[in-house]
# Entry
Amino acid sequence: MRLSFLSLFLPLLLVNAVIFCNGSKILKMKYYHKACNSVDDIVRDITWRKVAENPSFAAKLLRLHYHDCFVRGCDGSILLDSTDQKDEDNEKAALPNRSLSGYEVIDEIKAKLEEECPGVVSCADILALAARDAISFQFRRPMWNVFSGRKDGRVSLSSEATRNMPSPFSNFTTLLTQFQSHGLDMMDLVTLSGAHTIGTTRCALLSRRLYNFTGRGDTDPSLNPEYAESLRKSCPKPLNPATFVEMDPQSSGSFDSHYFKILNEHKGMFVSDAALLTNQHSAQMAQDLENPNQFFARFAQSMKKMSEILTLAEGEGEVRQNCRVVN
# Structure
């Protein structure tokens, strides 16, 4: 199976195009070749070590990158701390982002790069590379190309995160509209939902779907009844906010296409997962992506597209010295 993955990704890794243009914004392969040739090795080595020590970092870093890109583009704004202890109006404070973690990995990578190449590598690029490398650790090879040259944004607003982040409670129309507003299409929506194949979620996010879906103490009828019963056992009332469940049962530690298998058995964790089956075209995509070769190829393409949303280039941002504060 791994040989087939290798044959699948070699064409992606050897792609001839080296520059991505979004208006005046330019990202390049080997962007830091002259200024900091060690950047890829440093990000990979630290990320792989952290994931080896704690496999949950794979899902955490991927999620950080996803949440960053859907607000103001991939500019590292999710990494900014509040500058005032009383001010909680930054992206981290937004409800969709309060459970995010993994920031310390980015901090460690940034500190090392500042030692090697002061003021050169942006936090936004570090996050894009670390997310890729966190998933790639399982396969010991880069799973998609990351073009670099992003600059770090100076603005981070809770209101924008609340408004722009796709919700696990959203229906298909809302999800597709949000993805399309960022230049992503239906295939990207379905494919990137496959990131739910790793990681866990809090029982609190399942409360309504399990216990009060229509306000009458019922369970979401789109959820597999046997699976719903198992979730109720794992998440009994009153719900404990500290209790977690696997998003991809029996496979949440492995990045694979198993998510689509359980999705098509009506065992998707969130309303947003189940929503993918409510549209004829996206439902067919979900069936096709049960094939691991198709999923990995499509995920590589969709991640590259997502990581290039509204990227800041020269003159539009900065390279932070500390990823948590503007210069």
Remarks:
- Residues 1-24 have pLDDT under 50 and may be disordered.
- The beta strands are 19-22, 25-28, 200-202, 244-246.
